[in-house]
């Protein structure tokens, strides 16, 4: 049995964050356009993630590397997801 491929885009967010809501909408739209998978992590469940990213959320990772924080730019995200 093969393991599922991890999502290319990962959003670190927390409930009640309006910037997270904005980022989620941009990520959802861009990933739908490109057929890219994405996932979200609620950082409030982890003291370590809260300490590291609590002041920067939303934080976006692409292919395991930090891509953006506070705001997600659709053009930059599309470029990061484009085939090399």
In short:
With 84 residues, the protein is of the alpha+beta class.
Compute the number of helices. 3
Strand tally, please?
Answer: 4
What is the CATH top level name? Alpha Beta
Biggest pleated-sheet summary = 4 strands, mixed
Helix content: 25-40%
Spell the H/E element sequence.
EHEHEEH
Give the overall form.
globular
- Measured by DSSP, the beta-strand proportion falls in 15-25%
CATH architecture: 3-Layer(aba) Sandwich
* Structure classification: alpha+beta
Q: How many domains make up the 3D coordinates? A: 1
Q: What value does the average pLDDT take? A: 93
Q: What are the low-pLDDT stretches, counting only 5+ consecutive residues below 50?
A: none
What is the radius of gyration computed over CA atoms, rounded to a whole number of angstroms? Answer: 13 Å
CATH topology category name: Glutaredoxin
Strand line-up of the largest beta sheet = 2-1-3-4
Give structural notes.
The chain contains three helices and four strands. The chain is α+β, with helices and mostly antiparallel strands. The protein has one domain: 3-Layer(aba) Sandwich (Glutaredoxin), CATH 3.40.30. Strands 2-1-3-4 form a four-stranded mixed beta sheet, covered by helices on one side. Helix 1 crosses helix 3. The longest helix has 17 residues. The termini are far apart.
């Amino acid at each position: 049995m093969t393991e599922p491929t991890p999502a290319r885009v990962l959003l670190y967010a927390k409930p009640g964050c309006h910037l997270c809501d904005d980022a989620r909408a941009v990520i959802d739209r861009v990933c739908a356009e490109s057929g890219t998978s994405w996932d979200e992590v609620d950082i409030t469940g982890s003291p370590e993630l809260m300490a590291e990213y609590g002041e920067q959320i939303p934080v976006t990772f692409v292919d395991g590397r930090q891509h953006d924080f506070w705001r997600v730019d659709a053009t930059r995200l599309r470029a990061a997801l484009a085939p090399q």
